[in-house]
């Protein structure tokens, strides 16, 4: 099969006496949208695509979209196999690297790949082949034949073209094999550990990577996913757990003593109890947070000051590359300290398993019609730290209670923050916390559904 890289203006076949009739017919008829094999992306008219020429017809006519731009036909068709482009100037094209279609930048006038781009595309293609071999990407049938992407289910809500494109991106995330599997699972490991490194080839977060990256720090990871041995009085099947969020709704109650009466207290994000003990209690066993280096180091330093029986566990969220990268740097500093001082660092910070992320994400998918609905026009979705903590608690504990995980428009966004100037119809999210990939209201709605079905109890 021969491939042609088409410029943005279009590829028009060369006119000959023998083909002028067929060419005029083909260029006057709109062609269907191309969907590239091995991907879930479609390309409308005018997009730069690699089109295949049929060997049976001698490659006289190549499939391409016309843009209607004047002069499109004067650019001859490009050479087969990803050689010279059809038009002058730079453009993006696609080529088949032996495993999948990948985007390749070319200079259409010279056919050359820009400096540095070739190495980048080669590395990306190699990584993608590695993930497929590891089973991270479900893009092949059992018989080894390449499989075209499944047609996305239609959304019930009407979307204009711009929002539809973003909704399709969210739908594809929800259809990832690990998300589909998580939706049906009832048990899953809670911590990332040495045994998971040995069992799994890939860490499947928003940007999957090889678990070989954990090898230099293997001794610093817990040996198993069981967390009972990591804190004083720990348990693997705990009786009662309180998840204490930072919502201003907590200010309406005095639940401090009730919170501390639970066997395990979990808190997402910053721990602020001083001055609010009667409202949010004093105990903390598990603290969940996004992996910012300053926060990891501050938490770890604070825990090292406390007696062993009073230490909490810090759990870094696994979804984001930035969060996991900060965790890696934390491990690197711990390893250097071990080498320098001849002793283990004794860090109280660990990484949540990617399974916790998958389970929380699959719940959001179910609550948003498979990703069709979202509060902002973005192709990204991410469960909040509080939502991850609740999913974690429901896996760990028999009885789960929620505090400070509902909205109250008449109260501060955080119980330790400034009160709003006036009550509003909806809770006003401060700009620094208003991330487009979070949907707090939908998460709160999900808590309500779980409470109605008896899976947990909401206090505030």
From TrEMBL:
It comes from the Eukaryota. Residues 16-29 have a biased composition (Low complexity). InterPro entries: Glyco_trans_29, Glycosyltr_29_Sialyltrsf, GT29-like_sf. It comes from Prymnesium parvum. GO terms for molecular function: sialyltransferase activity. Belongs to the glycosyltransferase 29 family. Residues 78-89 have a biased composition (Gly residues). Keywords: Glycoprotein, Glycosyltransferase, Golgi apparatus, Membrane, Signal-anchor, Transferase, Transmembrane, Transmembrane helix. It is a single-pass type II membrane protein. Pfam families: Glyco_transf_29 (PF00777). Residues 14-38, 59-89, 110-163 are annotated as: Disordered. This is Uncharacterized protein.
């Amino acid at each position: 099969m021969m491939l042609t890289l088409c410029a943005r203006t279009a590829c028009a076949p060369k006119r000959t006496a023998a083909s002028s009739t067929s060419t005029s017919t083909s260029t006057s008829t709109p062609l269907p949208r191309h969907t590239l094999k091995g991907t879930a992306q479609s390309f409308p008219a005018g997009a730069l695509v690699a089109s295949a020429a049929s060997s049976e017809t001698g490659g006289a006519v190549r499939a391409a979209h016309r843009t209607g731009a004047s002069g499109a036909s004067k650019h001859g068709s490009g050479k087969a196999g990803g050689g010279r482009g059809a038009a002058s100037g730079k453009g993006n094209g696609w080529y088949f690297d032996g495993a999948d279609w990948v985007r390749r930048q070319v200079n259409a006038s010279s056919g050359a790949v820009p400096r540095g781009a070739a190495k980048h595309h080669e590395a990306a293609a190699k990584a993608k082949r590695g993930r497929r071999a590891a089973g991270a990407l479900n893009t092949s049938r059992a018989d080894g034949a390449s499989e075209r992407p499944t047609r996305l289910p239609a959304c019930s809500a009407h979307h204009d073209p711009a929002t539809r494109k973003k909704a399709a991106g969210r739908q594809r995330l929800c259809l990832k094999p690990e998300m589909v599997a998580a939706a049906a699972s009832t048990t899953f490991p809670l911590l990332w550990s040495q045994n998971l490194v040995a069992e799994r080839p890939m860490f499947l977060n928003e940007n999957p990577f090889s678990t070989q990256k954990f090898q230099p720090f293997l001794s610093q990871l817990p040996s198993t996913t069981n967390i009972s041995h990591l804190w004083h009085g720990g348990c693997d099947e705990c009786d009662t757990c309180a998840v204490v969020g930072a919502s201003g709704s907590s200010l309406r109650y005095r639940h401090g003593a009730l919170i501390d009466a639970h066997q395990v207290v979990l808190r997402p994000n910053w721990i602020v109890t001083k001055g609010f003990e009667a409202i949010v209690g004093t105990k903390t066993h598990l603290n969940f947070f996004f992996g910012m280096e300053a926060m990891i180091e501050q938490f770890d330093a604070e825990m090292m000051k406390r007696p062993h029986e009073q230490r909490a566990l810090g759990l870094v969220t696994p979804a984001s590359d930035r969060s996991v990268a900060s965790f890696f740097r934390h491990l690197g500093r711990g390893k250097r300290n071990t080498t320098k001082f001849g002793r283990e660092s004794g860090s109280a910070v660990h990484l949540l398993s990617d399974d916790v992320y998958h389970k929380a994400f699959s719940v959001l998918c179910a609550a948003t019609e498979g990703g069709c609905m979202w509060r902002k026009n973005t192709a990204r979705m991410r469960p909040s730290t509080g939502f991850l903590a609740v999913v974690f608690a429901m896996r760990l504990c028999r009885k789960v209670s929620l505090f400070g995980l509902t909205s109250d428009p008449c109260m501060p966004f955080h119980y330790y923050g400034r009160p709003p100037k006036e009550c509003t119809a909806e809770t006003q999210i401060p700009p620094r916390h208003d991330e487009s990939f979070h949907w707090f209201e939908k998460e709160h709605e999900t808590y309500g559904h779980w409470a109605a079905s008896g899976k947990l109890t909401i206090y505030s």
